[in-house]
Automatic annotation (TrEMBL):
Keywords: DNA recombination. This is IS30-like element ISCg2 family transposase. The keyword Iron does not apply. InterPro entries: Integrase_cat-core, IS30-like_HTH, RNaseH-like_sf, RNaseH_sf, Transposase-Integrase, Transposase_IS30-like.
Amino acid sequence: MTYSVEVRQRAFTLLGQGWSPRQVGLELGVSRVGVSLWRRQVGGVIRERPALSARYLSRAERYELARLHDAGHGVREIGRRLGRSASTISRELARPRRPSGARGRPAGRGVGYAPEACHQAAAAARTRARTSKLSRQPALQAWVQARLDERYSPAQIAGRLRVEHPDDEQMRISHETIYRAIYIRPRGELKRELRAHLRTGRELRRRRATRQTQQTRGRIVDAVSISERPDDVETRLVPGDYEGDLMLGPTGTTAAIGTLVERTSGHLTAFLLPERHTADATLAGLLDAVTRTGWPMRTLTWDRGHEMARHAQFSIATGIQVYFADPHAPWQRGSNENTNGLLREYFPRGRDLATATDAELQAAVDQLNNRPRQRHDFLNPNEVLTAILDQDQQTAGVATTD
């Protein structure tokens, strides 16, 4: 006889409270032998082990998963109802149904997904001491540590492994495992001082918070709004569209760093304004930087800072149209905002940028242009631009042949 998920859940709850199989059987109308068999299938000891955090499925979630699965719902629908990802549900349904030490046939045989057996097995697995993957694989540990030294983020490290070692399954690690090796009870896998190379440089891992800042901007004469920018710029399919801004030092200083980011590849070009970030100085810096970009510039989208008051002269000299983002809308220049955040790792907010050198700035730019990006399947901006150039040359060669 097959019993419902609700009956089994109630049975395991009573067993966990100390009821005997006979008492549970009388309460639920199930034979004592049947209840004893259920208990053996999950390891013999029934107790509710609270989840360590919301990351882990709870016992109630597993029973709800079983009900939905038995009702014929797919993993995406189950995930939507439980507030979990479809991959989490898929892995849970594929989990071995019998915990270590259980006797008798697997709990899942003949009854589909077995929530109690899976819950007890998962809870038991969390309590076992494990040797970390980095400790077991010195080559992987050395590779990860070297990339942290180059200021890669854990996500970039995990993704770049697949690019550089596509056929070596041993060279695989998740970004979460790297974070745990750094922050959670370090066992010596990664050097403690490498925490300073993470994007935040924090000693403790914290949730990200957002803070909206208000800036007072002067009016730009004859500014062309971003709403008039060609639609194909938004698609990022054609290289040559750039976003730009100035990165300033602390209050009371006048030096700045100008940044230009190519939207398709994320390639960065930067220039130093060591004295003042006036409109004239910015114009001179831009005219020089345009000759050094990774790809010829066709449009430039800038913030509404007064440093771009000479935008008309820039357009006349270069033939490049400048568009201005809306006030207080940094997401309209998201590539530039994100890249400026990366550059801040090398030039923190408290540093007077007048102390920076061109060589120091270029070294930081080179490192960022060689840092893998998740949106490019962990290729770096230099590799992306090279691939675009190669494809363009091949296309031109075919056209010439025809």
